[in-house]
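Q: Hi! Curious about what Bicarbonate transporter-like transmembrane domain-containing protein looks like structurally. Here's the sequence.
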Amino acid sequence: MPGSVCGCWFTRLVRLATRFTDDIFAFLIVSIYVIKAVGDPFGGSDGSLWPFDPNHKTHKEQDDDYDFLQVALLGVILGFGTTWLIFYLRSFKTPSFFCSGTIRSSIHDFSVTFSAVLWTVVSNVIFKDVEVASLAVPDQFEPTYQCCDASCTLRFPDDCHNQAERAGVRSWVVDVRNTNGKVWVPIALLVLRNNVQHGEAFNYDLFLSGCFNFVNGVLGLPWLVATTVKCIVHLNSLSEKDQNGKVLYVQETRLTMLFSHMMVGFSLLALNLLKLLPLPVLNGVFLFMAFAALPNVQFWSWLLLLFQQPSKYLETPYTKYMEKSRIHLFTCKFSFSVSSFFVRNFKTIAVAFPMMTMLCITARTHLLPRILEGWELVLLDGDIFEIQEWIDKRTDSVAEYEASLRGDLSEFEDDKFE
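A: Let's find out. The predicted structure is below.
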């Protein structure tokens, strides 16, 4: 019991997290999506570009007339074509084409489905002779790894070496680092700028995640998967924004999660159709989700400022009131914090990954105030209410100073007296 109370109290420290910490996690996960969809330059075999390697796993055990360059080129066209078509169809929501807003909204809402179906038809009909890798779907629904005989005395993975090698034996201590992304999803969505009214239930969410992970672990199932990018994309779909991108309101509903999980279950009835889905098309969908989530990551906007002409900056509170060099200084510090998260790629120090959350909070509360002024941190890292309060105070201060130059402070003296 004391441990549980201490753990719940410890999670309350997450409330100290600001946009600085939120954007670090969001940008990290978006980067992982891009790397997985395009190809990891530091190793691995996932992504649309890796099939250009003649030794890639998809080129093994093929016929003599098999041309891996054709397969790789078609994969690139399918992957990037899927991403492009999704964005193109989503642009139909605002123009005046088509006869009604309902049709335009339908094209926008089902752009992912339309694009995936179209490029799947292109692959399986027009280029049916090119053997592009397809989605790995089993012939029937059954456990992936079976380690049991009639006596049910075998233990996995000790008594099933051939399957243990494929499944991999992972340390639970090191795998705890994955809980950062799983727990961080509600935190990234419930920030004030998203104008979500559901509330802040960090301890409750963490408790439910722990319960589900415990049940999955007992049954030998995978732990909960972090869906930060998908949740951000879904939040964007349910949000109504003004011309400046500010969220006006969010159509909050629980039915989406219910229907999406029901569709996952019903997909088991369509295994033969899922086999037709080319893997590059799926990579293109992942790449779209990453690019669609990027505009909501403030760090991406700060990073783009490094390559833009200062006079062409989009007017925001920090570009309006801060020196450009100070903004870039904050961006460099942010970049260092993001790069530090790649310690998870080194297994010897990956065990420290769960503490990176607390290190980010500590850097924000103790290190950054030594580098930047308090008002600068408000403009860069504050919520919309803090920023508006600072702007109002600055406006009043400037007005009072200008009145003092004219020798007319009667209005401000009356306000102070009241």
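A: A fun detail: The longest helix spans residues 68-90.
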